[in-house]
Structure formats: C-alpha cells, structure tokens
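thread: overnight batch results

M.L. [08:02]
morning all. the overnight job finished for the chain we discussed friday. pasting input first so we're all looking at the same thing
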Amino acid sequence: MSFVDFPRRLDLAMYDEAVEQYGRAVKSRAVAVYRGGRVRFPGLSDIDLLVVVDDQPVWDNEEFYSPFVRLPKRYHELFHHRPHFVPRSCIDALAYSTFAYTTKTAAHGAVDDAGFRRQLVVGDDVVPTAWAQPNYSWYLCNLFETAITARLRFDHFQGSQRRSVRRLASMAATFRFPLRQLDELNGTSYEGAYSSIVDRARAELLETSGDVEAAAGVLFTLYAATLAGFERAIGELANARQGEPAAHAAREILAARRVLASIEPSYMASRRAAIHTYFDRLRHTKISGLTIFVREPYRTEVQLYRQPLWVGRTATALRTAIDALG
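M.L. [08:03]
and the structure it wrote out:
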C-alpha cells in the first residue's frame, strides 16, 4: 500500500481569508453564501459552503461560483470539493437533506459539532435557522444515501495505486456524522470511540515529527472496518436479501423500486418529489453541483447540467481576466 499526498499544517487565518474572498467574489449574483463547520485541523480540515442561487440561468454560472476559478491558487487546497448549491425556489428541499440535521444532543441545548453549523457569509439569510427534528424516515433515507456513496468512494480509493492521505483523512472524518445518526437511530454509541481515534490520527499527521505512515495506516484500517460494520447495520435496516450488498438494497429503496415498511409512504413520496424538482431547477440554473442530495440512487431519473467544453474554457478565461483587472 502506497500513501501519497500527506498534509502539511496551514495557517488558520487562511481559511477565513478564503471564505471572505469567495463571498466578495460571488455576492453580486448569489442570494446567500453560508459557511458550515469549524476548522480543527488546519491543513486537513476543508471549507464547506452552501450557496443559495437565483433560479435564473446564466451561461457562466459554473465558473462564476467555482472557488477554483475565482480564488488565488494558494487557497485551492482548502476546498476538497465545490460548494453545495440550492436554488432559492428549492430551499424547502433542504429539510430532506443532511443540511437540516441537528443531533438530539444539540436539540436539547448542548454544544455539538455534528450537523451543518451555518454562518452567513454574504447575502440574505433565507435559510431557516431551525428545522423539525428528523423523524425515523429521514434517518433511514440519509443513512441509505451514505451507504451508497461511502462504498463507492472507498472502492475507488482502494483501487488507486497511490492513495491520497488527505483524501483518506477527509473520508474518515466525515464518516463520523452518519455514524452519529446510526447511533441515534439504534441507541448505540460507536461514534465517540471512532471519532477519538480519527482525531488522534489527524493530529499525528500534522505533527512536525509525527509518524505519518502509521497514522495513515490507522485511518485506513479503522475506516475499512467501520464501513463494513456500518454496512451490516444498514443491511438489516434495509431488509437486504441473502447475499445482497447493503448499498444495492439502499439504492433499490431510494429509487422506489422496493418498498420498505419502516419508511412512511407519504414521506418517501414528498422527498422524491422534492429531489426531482431540485435537480430540475439546478440544471435550469446551469450549475452541475455539488448537489445537496446524492445523485447515484436517482441516476436514471434526474439529470445534471452538462456544460459544453468550449463554453467552460471561454468562461474560465474571461472570468480569470475580469478578476485580474478588478
């Protein structure tokens, strides 16, 4: 196993600078930009943004909203992915996504890092400050989405000859949130111990004289074992058939090709309607993602915007020149 792309400790101030510059860059067109989470491990932590966009299409929205086009290159490594986008007309769809998640601990007033702890960067505060506490159907649907994406990403990571440690640390750190949701659903307590080990390994990766190879090995072994256990639990919740992978059972349920009695039919119907509307409106705005929902279960039902290559190249060149002159 060959690990590459080891992290380096960065200045915490860079994160605030990057968010501030991004907000300034897109405020003329964005309805709102929200920042989520907090930076605990500068150099490993990334920037999570939720951008509310107007429903009107603009030919260069892809490039206008891309931090990899709008920001200086020194900030690019702070973004492990593009912002999440939601059209203003689809804000209610957030209720079905993890952006509406509040832990039971936080709901009772305690401090808790799980969930999207939003902070308005620029624009109008159009996203509700609080959502209804997730119901059983919400938990199942979001856990099923995680089962699909986590397996796909880990299989892709395992298949790589050169495995990025920054990518591995990001996957391992993010996985604490679905583990917390599974704990809340089943009354278990696996997430705490898992997160403690992940954070110890992340700290080791950023130490000047840290044993980074060992830390990467711990993250890989822990994530693989935890994902396997998570999938067994999801298989039980999804009533997976004998020998059927949990991700396949989850995909069948989310795509409405299989009915699960523990998910309220009315909830599933309204959720699927919101998802279809969301993807349709987002495509109309000429933005391809990052989306607030996992697309994989609905791949045959929804479409993303596909920007012609020449349009993307033209928009990138023009936007880069405009920003340089501005």
